[in-house]
């Protein structure tokens, strides 16, 4: 019931309506800021695996990786390599990563961890 | 209105102040709600369209790099496709959907353009020259 008390300018119901309207606007604003679904991660994961394939077939250079607009980090044993070298900062949390077992010419097995991100 | 009405008005007033205020607020909420729903629906449709084009470009590039334009050779197990090794002849002959294009770029920019484009690292079979398979969807 929208009855205002004597001496009160607005009734409790009217104030509740203001509160409800504000909540609705706040929810709409939050919804519009939410990140929409995208295929970016899938695409980046494909690119990361492509780079590892190219590494096996033709080798990777900094300028080649830079052409894609991505940064690549390769960790094998104690060795860490950044391609291109200008990406040698910390790897962001949003980077996609994968791990492969590699077989060297000397017959040793090692673990290769690769990460890819947009600088 | 009689004295039992929830909306009290002063003498000579047709509508109570708080009732009219609540009505204006209710109308505003309805209008804002309708506007917000229509905007969200419009954005969702646009985003869905972009996502669909992006998915088509990703799928087409994946098909070309793994089979459609990959170098193939016969073996005792049947035909083997060497993924990421682009056979330029097969790339030219590949049947791709109308409105889309695909090219291999080793240096610089390509000529292929569209609403959604993807670039996948690949090598040219034979020369082992590293480049990118550039695929666009209209």
> Strands of the largest sheet of chain A, in order across it?
2-1-4-3
Largest sheet of chain B: 5 strands, mixed
Classify the helix fraction of chain B into a percent range: 40-55%
Shape of chain B: rod-shaped
Indicate the mean pLDDT of chain A.
Answer: 84
Tally of alpha and pi helices of chain A:
3
Residue-averaged pLDDT of chain B: 86
Most extensive chain interface and residues per partner:
A-B, 37 and 36 residues
Helix share, percent of chain A? 25-40%
* Strand count of chain A: 4
Spatial order of the strands in the main sheet of chain B?
1-2-4-5-3
Quaternary structure type: heterodimer
Biggest β-sheet strands, sense, barrel of chain A: 4 strands, antiparallel
Task: Give a quick precis of the structure.
The complex is a heterodimer of chains A (119) and B (138). With 119 residues, chain A is of the alpha+beta class.
Architecture blueprint of SSEs:
The complex is a heterodimer of chains A (119) and B (138).
Chain A: H1 12-33, H2 40-57, H3 62-68, E1 71-76, E2 79-83, E3 96-103, E4 109-117
Antiparallel strand pairs in A: 1-2, 1-4, 3-4
Chain B: H1 17-68, E1 70-75, E2 78-86, H2 88-93, E3 100-105, E4 116-124, E5 130-137
Parallel strand pairs in B: 2-4
Antiparallel strand pairs in B: 1-2, 3-5, 4-5
């Amino acid at each position: 019931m929208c009855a205002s008390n004597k001496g009160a300018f607005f009734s409790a119901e009217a104030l509740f309506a203001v509160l409800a309207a504000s909540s609705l606007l706040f929810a709409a604003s939050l919804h519009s800021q939410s990140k929409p679904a995208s295929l970016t991660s899938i695409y980046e994961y494909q690119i990361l695996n492509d780079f590892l394939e190219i590494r096996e077939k033709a080798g990777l250079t900094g300028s080649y990786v830079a052409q894609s607009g991505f940064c690549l980090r390769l960790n094998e044993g104690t060795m860490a390599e950044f391609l291109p070298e200008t990406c040698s900062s910390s790897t962001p949390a949003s980077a996609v990563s994968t791990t492969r077992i590699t077989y060297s010419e000397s017959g040793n097995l090692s673990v290769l961890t690769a990460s890819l991100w947009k600088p | 209105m009689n004295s039992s009405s929830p909306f009290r008005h002063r003498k000579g007033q047709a509508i109570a102040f708080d009732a009219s205020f609540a009505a204006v607020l209710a109308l505003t909420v309805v209008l804002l709600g309708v506007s917000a729903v229509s905007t969200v629906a419009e954005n969702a449709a646009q985003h869905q369209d972009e996502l669909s084009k992006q998915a088509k470009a990703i799928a087409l590039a994946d098909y070309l790099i793994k089979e459609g334009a990959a170098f193939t050779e016969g073996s005792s197990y049947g035909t083997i496709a060497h993924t990421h090794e682009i056979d330029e002849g097969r790339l030219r002959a590949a049947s791709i959907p109308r409105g889309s294009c695909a090219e291999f770029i080793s240096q610089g920019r390509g000529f292929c353009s569209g609403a959604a484009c993807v670039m996948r690292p690949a090598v040219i079979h034979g020369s082992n020259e590293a480049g990118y398979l550039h695929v666009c969807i209209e």
